[in-house]
Amino acid sequence: MKLMTCPINGTRPIAEFSYGGTLRVMPDPNAASDAEWSDYVFNRDNAPGIKREWWRHIPSNTWFIAERDTERDVVLRTWLHAERD
Amino acid sequence: MRLPSVEREWLNRAQKIEFSFEGRPYEGYAGDSISSALWANGVRVLGRSFKYHRPRGLLSLANHDVNALFQQGGEPNIRGDARPLETGMRLTAVNTFGGGVAHDNGRFLGLLSRFLPVGFYYKAFHTKALFPLWEKVFRLTTGLGKVDFATPRKRTAKSYDFCDVLVVGGGPSGLAAACAAAKAGARVVIVEENARLGGSGVYQLGADAQRAAILEALLQQVEAADNIRVLVDHYAAGYYKDHWLPLVAHAADAPLRKMRAKSVIVASGAFEQPAVFRANDLPGVMLASAAQRLFYRYGIRPLENPLVLTANADGYRAALDMAKSGARVAAVVDLRGTHAANDLEQQVRAQNIPIHVAASVVEAVPGPGGKSVIAARVGAFADGKAAFGDLREIPCDGILMSVGWAGAANLLYQAETRMRYDDAVEQFVPEHLPEGVFACGKVNGVHTLAAKLIDGERAGAAAAVHAGFGAKGEGVEVPAEIESPSHPWPIIEHPQGKNFVDFDEDVQFKDIANAIQEGFDNIELLKRYSTSGMGPSQGKHSNMNVLRILARLTGKTPAEVGTTTARPMYHPVSMAALAGRGFSPERRTPLHGRHAALGAEWLSAGAWQRPAYYRQDGKTAQECIHAEAAAVRGGVGLIDVGTLGKLEIRGKDAAEFLERVYVSRYANLKVGMSRYAVMCDEAGVIIDDGVVARLAEDHFYFTTTTSGAAGVYAELSRLHILWKLEVTLVNHTGAYAAVNLAGQKSRAVLSRLTDLDLSGAAFPYLGVRTGEVAGIPARLLRVGFVGEWGYEIHVPATYGGALWDALMTAGAAEGIRPFGVEAQRLLRLEKGHIIIGQDSDGLTTPLDLNLHWAVKMEKPFFVGQRSLAILEKKPAKQRLVGLVFPTLPNDAREKPQECNLVIEAGEIAGRITSIAYSPTLQRHIALAFVRPARIRPGERVDIRLSSGDTLTAEVFVPPFYDPENLRQKIAD
Amino acid sequence: MHAFVAPVAVSPLVEVAFANGKPGAVVFVDHSLTPRYGCKGKGKGAAQWLQSLGLPLPAAPNRWLPLAEEGLIARLGMQEFLIDGNADVVARLQASPPPADVAAVLRQDAALELSGPGLSELLLQTCAVDFAALDLAEQPVVLTRMTGVGVTVIPGASSYRIWCDGTYGAALWESLYAVAADLPEPPAQSLHSTDRSSEHDA
User: Fold this and answer.
1) Short-list B399, B353, B351, B355, CA closest to B377
2) Helix/strand/coil for B523
3) Domains of chain B (ranges plus CATH)?
4) Quick one: fold of A3-79?
5) What is the pLDDT of residue C191?
6) What is the residue extent of each domain of chain A?
7) Cβ pair A60:C76 closer than 8 A
8) pLDDT of C128-143, one tens digit each?
9) Measured between CA atoms, how close is A78 to chain B, in angstroms?
């Protein structure tokens, strides 16, 4: 089973985690056009490649970001959102 | 024939084992496998082949074929090569139609073989009327062992296991690898599928004591290392992500180990490959390594007068081993014109064994009934072709085949290794290994013993470094093979056929050739059409030859043809081992025992167990539910609502946070009051609802739906990280027990248990208070709920039972009754309350549900606001309304149901989302989606019932019961 | 003015602990009613508050420290704390209103303690964490899952303490008990041994 590393709790089987969606930056709702807003809400880039995603360690409710290469199925690194890159 | 003790054999001669095969008694020793014990007793026909029911003997003795497949009582498909002999075994062969292996009634199928080529079933059956007959025939004739449906359920354990370096395979290279990794300090586990370590080091000896000594030294090194753990009689069934391998035991009761390693070394060796010549499946024709195993492991002289067909040094060693066993080797027939193992050749000649080079066996001559070999027909062999003109007939009682090897690379394929075809060894070898995966020995194309040890040490050191032990060394030079251990074409295209490629499926050379001719000329299609490689052995002894045939017949190289991949499991794994235990934990409120004692009929709400209703003697479910509802409307009832999500937020920005995640305003909520709460997602879709109560300026207590609790808390936690507001969020769902005391008499009942002022002025509708109930610290809310005066009371979970008991006692005089989820749904439907997920779906917005009043678009921001702004401007597609059915008698035979459609002008115009018969109102009531044009009270819409009939419904604005909502605000 | 007898607190494990008894290889003890207290806050708020009340503070996430007379304080992740097993300290904390940036967490856990010769095998069958590889001297706290239930585990030399949400307690106990009941007669072995080379599989 694939492993995932929680920045606080360490490396665990992926069954201890849940996926929280792509890391996205919300556009300013007041400035975005309807089309821009819809694109943000509904569209995702599903092409294989390196993604940044929200993940959660379920037993400890720790949210973090994972950088994952979905083409090679490799988790490159994980970090807490508050930390700078 | 069983010999007296052979040095280092695997038997315990002191322990005799009695067993029977097809009713005949035999004797073997502890340490025998079923196959070896039968062969030692002179049994030559061990089974019948799958399709043609040809007599079969041993082929690989390595569990790479299923010639020796047995049934014992209710246990089917016992692998004779791998299963240890046990006292009292009563075995039968699996694929016979009565008559046993000796006189199998199915043997006539062999005579029909001309009509049963591969793929015949795609072409032969045209008359549909006869299909049921053919089905019966096929069900009887196909399949192997018989399943006993009365087999008792056995629970087998699964356990996790951990190591730094896992070595798959305990042969010479694996042992060398393990020692190197252990020396670097890693925790090493060796998993070995046979009963003892050693692999080919045990039997590929050529009667050379030095080779045996090398293995002995390695075994002692392993024994001495206290950081090497050995698991024999276990195999790695597959490779899964991040070095996770299930280790399966041959023994029935041993747990399946889910091993997590930091590095994996695949030292799994290679499958010896058969030569393809006419009648190569006769009992007595076997792989050379099988014969060597029989001798060195089990102290058996395999044959009296064998002939060795070879194309490598291993064959010469096999001839020497047979001579050592006392056999009279008829000849060594070498496919090659020249070779480099001169030393071995000299030793063979010294035994007066004739050697024929550039020659091949083209046919094995059968004894009576095709149950033995009496001679081999040998002809000249050059450029992959045999000369049939001038054949020499050499008497022998068996033929050993030593013509080549295919790497046991299954785990490497599963780890996504890129393989390449190495012409020097005529074998696919790893070209690019994934990180943390290493290969050594035969599977890596290294066959010479000295080279295997160097290759193993290299892999072991590298694996240890990857796991964090030892230092990276300089590159190690592994000596190349001086000649190929595998022949590129050990195949005779015999005009009379019966030259088998896949022994499991009875696939002959011509079957492959015909399939290619029919257009199945790609390795994936060829495999599936010919079924070669699809039997229980999954191509272990056949894939390579099929690949070579396809390459030659299509003018390609083996590299261009490629291989099919290998999928778990490496050997078939019993369902019992895989099933293990299931863990689906139930969630129980603190009142679980109370409900059980009251006769609860349980309902699963996600993981939660809730009482749907409480059973009453002699009453139907509906009668119980109606009685519970009537108790609430008539006086007072009590329900466990402990499954609700209960969240708390504290901090200076608490109100701000709630205003962002819910559609309504909460900054202006007074301390001590509560308000309905609707939550949307970014698309403006309603995803949860509940109640927000303000306990203090900076402290709110809020509820979610039962099924939404975990998801809401998770998402709020995530938003908290993004927004960085000054708040703390707590999930108290499991920490509080909660009940709802509902009904006109609820105030009277509660007043006996608390000093709180329960007057309407002091504790208004929608108010929240903290105080004590029956001496228990509690939070009380007055909410709409079922449309009666009532209190939702939250207490710490350990006091839940005490609270329930106190309320039931205090309410006894009023006839208090517990009520369950079904009564709750009925009561709430009477008030028109929606259920998220029932009266809403993945596209429903608050606007569709007439919740405009709750949506405060003037707030600076809330989740879903921007989308709702877009949707507000669009024409609505649907609206939720109440429905009644003026023309429906209460005892109608067919009643409308959830999801019955609203039909308008032949099109779908909505659907019923909730419906029930209300005993209070004496009519059916429903909630439904209809088109916006139809929402006026009194509008008629057509419902299509499940039978297809039409029923007219009339739009009604909820609440159906107590339209002024007076009963929840005013008590007697 | 009503006068009520002090209410009786009941462990979430009371029904299953009674029903299932005690299997041989593993000893189960229910500690659900042990006094305990929880709190969490953003940033350093909770840590500072507890320190100001005189409690020792584990420096790193997922570590625990003993309290002076009895009991322990565990740091769960970055900013959440569990104080367990010291009635005086718990009472003192419950009587002290926390500052605005700290929230009290009502702990109504199911809590159990497991010990016995079958303990390491039970853990191997129910949890994917390599407990044998942990250094107990660091006093680790492990937040993970066992038999599908989220748990907080404090490993010890001869016993393990486990906390979980009280509403999952019965399910956790029943699953662990069922596994323990199926364990074979245990050989005498150290519970926290990294050396398993003495194991021989038939």
Assistant:
1) B399
2) helix
3) 1-155 (3.10.20.440), 158-271+406-466 (3.50.50.60), 274-403 (3.50.50.60), 499-563 (1.10.10.1100), 592-634 (no CATH), 635-642+735-843 (3.30.1360.120), 644-733+847-872 (3.30.70.1400), 875-972 (2.40.30.110)
4) Folate-binding fold (3.30.2270)
5) 39
6) 3-79
7) yes
8) 999 999 999 999 999 9
9) 16
Give all strands (DSSP E) within B899-967, no chain letters: 901-904, 907-918, 923-930, 940-944, 950-956
Spatial CA neighbour of B536 closest among B131, B81, B192, B856: B81
What is the enclosing helix (H) or strand (E) of B872?
A: helix B865-873
Q: Find chains touching chain A: ≥3 CB pairs under 8 Å.
A: B, C
Triad B914, B925, B746: Cα angle to 5°: 90
**Six-digit token string for B686:** 């309603």
Asked if the model's pLDDT at residue C189 lies above 50, the reply is: no
Q: Which of B271, B275, B515 is nearest to B523 (CA)?
A: B515
Give per-residue pLDDT as tens, B916-948. Answer: 999 999 999 999 999 999 999 999 999 999 999
Q: Which residue of B has its CA nearest to A17?
A: B714
- pLDDT confidence tier of residue B423, bands split at 50, 70 and 90: very high
Q: Does domain C12-32+109-182 have CATH number 3.20.20.105?
A: no
Bridge partners of B904? B907
Taking the C-alpha atoms of residue B413 and residue B407, their distance in angstroms, rounded to an integer, is 11
* Helix or strand (DSSP H, E) at B714: helix B709-723
Structural contact between residues B585 and C145, judged by C-beta atoms closer than 8 angstroms: no
Mean pLDDT value across residues B85-91: 96
Q: How far apart are CA B849 and CA B879, in angstroms?
A: 6
Please report the pLDDT score of residue C21 as a whole number. Answer: 64
The arithmetic mean of pLDDT across residues C87-99, rounded, is 95
CATH 3.30.70 given to domain C34-107: yes
Taking contacts as CB-CB distances below 8 angstroms, the residues of chain A near B241 are 1-3, 73
- Token digits for C51? 């320190």
* pLDDT for B155: 78
Q: H or E element: which one contains C92?
A: helix C87-95
Q: How many helices (H) and strands (E) does chain A have?
A: 1, 6
Nearest to B144 by CA among B541, B567, B535, B569: B535
Is B436 buried (19+), middle (13-18) or exposed (0-12) by CB count in 10 A? middle
pTM for the predicted model, two decimal places: 0.92
| Distance from C-alpha of B811 to C-alpha of B800, rounded to nearest angstrom | 17
| Helix ranges restricted to H, B225-367 | 288-296, 313-324, 342-350
In this prediction, residues B565-594 reach a mean pLDDT of 91
| C145: nearest CB among A8, A59, A62 | A59
Chain C residue with minimal CA distance to A57? C144
Look at the block and give the residue holding tokens 């590299």.
Answer: B559
How confident is the model at residue A85, as a pLDDT?
46
Contact B718 A18 (CB under 8 A): no
Q: What is the mean pLDDT of residues C74-90?
A: 96
* ipTM, 2 dp: 0.98
Q: What pLDDT shows up at residue C184?
A: 75
Residue C199 has pLDDT above 50, yes or no: no
User: Which residues in chain B are closer than 8 Å to A76, comparing Cβ atoms?
Assistant: none
Distances B580 to A48, B513, B910 between C-alpha atoms, Å: 36, 44, 46
With a pLDDT cut of 90, the percent of chain B lying above it is 88
The DSSP bridge pattern shows strands A3-6 and A10-13 to be antiparallel
Q: Please name the member of B713, B731, B866 whose beta carbon is closest to the beta carbon of A37.
A: B866
Q: Break chain C into its structural domains and give their ranges.
A: 12-32+109-182, 34-107
The pLDDT score that the predictor gives to residue A83 is 74
Question: How far out from the chain centre does Cα B485 lie?
Answer: 38
User: Residue B820, CB half-sphere, CA atoms under 13 Å: how many?
Assistant: 28
